[in-house]
Amino acid sequence: MKRKWMVPMLCIVGALAYGGKNGDWTLGPFQRPVDAKPVIKPNAASVFQDPLRNAPVRWEALHTFNPAAIVRDGKVYVLYRAEDSSGAMSIGGHTSRLGLAVSDDGVNFRAEAQPVLYPADDAQKAREWEGGCEDPRIVESEDGTYVLTYTQWNRSTYDVGVATSRDLHHWTKHGPALARAYGGKYSNLKYKSAAIVTKLSGGHLIAARILGKYWMYWGEGRISLATSKNLTDWQPVEDSRNEPVALLEKRPGRFDSFLPEVGPPPVLTQRGIVMIYNGKNADVDRDMKLVPSTYSAGQALFSANDPTRLIARSDSPFFQPELPFERSGQYAAGTTFVEGLVYFQKHWFLYYGCADSLVGVAFTALKT
């Protein structure tokens, strides 16, 4: 039986598909499924015994969005941000936990009843309570360990936390990614959104070593770079002023006129490092084809031999809110906020948050 999500074949270059109006180095184009619907939605029936409130909580009753994705045992696993109905009825006012869902085809998901990463009575409690664990990105290491970057939010400040797992269910938290760099220089820095550079190997996106190091693009508003030897402790790449290098910044008149923000883990390709990123449209000096404050997605290309060197950057978004469930929800301006990317059954699958409320998927046809 032909699956409804199949799309026409695209141009083929090795194991990757390139193309689209932004240049032959970009990944894509991506297309939504026929009769597209959210693939993960809130579920008020899911109850979790919260270890800090010491009470049952309907942990994914309000919103489910901003997903990471990984391929494991021939299936797609998505870790998604879920908000309960506690706190103020405003963005960032609830407690977030990370849920886990699995799919045989990349489109139809079965969500587990309990969250897998959440605020607890542990060493990260002060950084994660009551705001929670938000907006994950995930990669696999060479030895099969999963490495997760996520936002730690205590309703006062935020940073990027790192956690590792062998099975996607049991996680070890390692604390803020940049906390130990340069003698603690960045221990109090407010920063979010971090994605580790990967390479495609055996159908899996594996953390890539370049010049003997791992590389991670990070930041919201200004995208910077960090390196690591172990995938848990990261050191910002600094400029001549001993500040984090600024690799991508906002551009007046473009879809990212208010800010750029890191998307899913970048991919090392034949042409360089392809980064899919999120751009927020400004209220003034904006992309007039988009509603003010809309989040859409662009791509940037960095040198494979020098991850600090920007080679190209898309002038227009390759993916933006179009469907009703992408334009209505907690975030009224609409978002297609991309955080998950996998290579699965000879296709790229892109997972994204819809208006801070739901999870969607798009894909592109490939052949190896």
Key terms:
7-stranded mixed beta sheet, globular, disordered N terminus
Oligomer: single chain
Largest sheet: 7 strands, mixed
Query: What is Rg?
Result: 19 Å
| Series of secondary-structure elements, N-terminal to C-terminal | EEEEEEHEEEEEEEEEEEEEEEEEHEEE
Residue-averaged pLDDT: 92
Helix content: under 10%
Structural class: mainly beta
Distance between the termini: 22 Å
Provide structural commentary.
- This protein has 368 residues and is an all-beta fold.
- The chain is 2% helix and 40% strand.
- Strands 12, 13, 19, 20, 21, 22 and 23 form a seven-stranded mixed beta sheet that branches.
- A hairpin with a 4-residue loop joins strand 8 and strand 9.
- The chain is globular, with a radius of gyration of 19 Å.
